[in-house]
Write a structure and sequence with these properties.
Length: 464
Amino acid sequence: MKIKNICCIGAGYVGGPTMAVIAQKCPEINVTVVDINENRIAAWNDVDVENIPIYEPGLSKIVEEARGRNLFFSTDIDSAIDKADMIFISVNTPTKTYGIGKGMAADLKYIELCARQIARVAKDDKIVVEKSTLPVRTAQALKDILDNTGNGVNYQILSNPEFLAEGTAVSDLINPDRVLIGGDIDTTEGKEAVQALVDVYAHWVPQKQILTTNVWSSELSKLTANAFLAQRVSSINAMSELCERTGADVNEVAKAVGMDSRIGPKFLKSSVGFGGSCFQKDILNLVYIAKSFGLNEVADYWEQVIIMNDHQKRRFASNIVKTLYNTVSGKKITFLGWAFKKDTNDTRESAAIYVADYLLNEQAEIVVYDPKVKAEQIYADLDYLNTRTEEENRARVTVVNTPYDACKESHAVALLTEWDEFTELNWQQIYDNMLKPAFLFDGRRLLEKRTKEEIGFEFYAIGS
Ligand code: NAD
Ligand code: UDX
């Protein structure tokens, strides 16, 4: 089975970059990315390719190359579904904010809407690919909906979770550690569908890196991978607090530990806490699934990763208050960085949001500079917490366009995102324009302590 037309429902951080790379690598396949969000689709189609809605290094170039040739962005979901042999579902699966499983389970309403739309529209056989991260056994629900509400056509459901990380999405897609494809490998039709998707990736991914499994293993592997990664960050963050009390340095500990080839060096960077749209959501979902099977010890084990992460964010904020003589009321605190990591404009679950909320509760005035995040996003993130009125958030938080303006006359600077440009700032100039004593809190272990102390800063870094 050769795939000629792909439709991807969901033009977000996964759908957009993934389909751009598929289109670039498979020029003979037509790829149409559809979304209900008209503004997002309009931005993907913007004549100035630098205005596409997602910032990822290298992405605009790929979009420029493929867009209009075999990569299309559209709001006409029905006709893209109708035309496609293979349909990826890349819609959001956020944590539920209501009803059973509120605050833990994944909200699958968008997934179900996609399934019902596909069932309504499809007039010939389709391969439906779960690209979104989903609870184990969601494929069964998709199949039930498609088979019971469809037009009698045949569906094969594949699970093909995405492992890209934001900020490195393009290189992760072009050189993935592995591509995982789960399918109904016990039937001929299932095997053919799996092979069709293998053939798409085989345009650029070596065969030995394309793993095929049954659907349930594939679905669960994605949640497991994210849980393991987040667990490493919480493990090193737990050690960072112990380092601060004992005179050990968390970077030295991480290096020594990471050189054990059984442990490895990656994901051992201590920070103000992990953010992003995936780690917390997926672990909460894992905890919920474990609980729903009565596996309370399994659930408690993984929940601790989140508890530790919340503690780390709170600890960073409370240390600022304590260090500033136990009050930040009316004091100006500068945030360098708002995104949840460098090289992305995504702010979902960013530690900066929670640190800001804590300090605003202590009546601080906050000034933010982030090279890629817009002011409206920063206000939306704070408003979403519902801690205070929208007017108060706008009165107490200012967003500026340069790091130097942000730091002028402030009592303390807190570095929340590890943007490269922060290492190259003129720290002497920043120091000269701050109130004294000038406090600098490095939540990312980005800055060199010695040179900052030589300038005169009171310098605090996580884990030392
Ligand atoms: P996103 O919110 O950026 O994008 C999802 C898009 O789907 C939105 O633009 C939304 O308008 C659209 N959508 C929702 N319902 C729709 C419908 N019925 N029809 C058409 N469009 C619809 O989300 P994302 O970050 O791309 O994540 C998508 C999925 O991929 C999630 O399950 C997530 O867990 C998973 N994932 C994300 C990442 C990541 O780094 N962001 C990495 C791996 C996996
Ligand atoms: C993660 C997974 O890495 C990716 O495989 C999955 O597909 C989606 O979720 P993402 O959230 O985009 O990707 O970024 P990631 O690099 O994993 O960072 C997540 C958070 O952990 C960030 O806030 C980052 O700053 C933090 N982090 C990461 C640390 O604090 N220390 C580390 O050593 C690594």
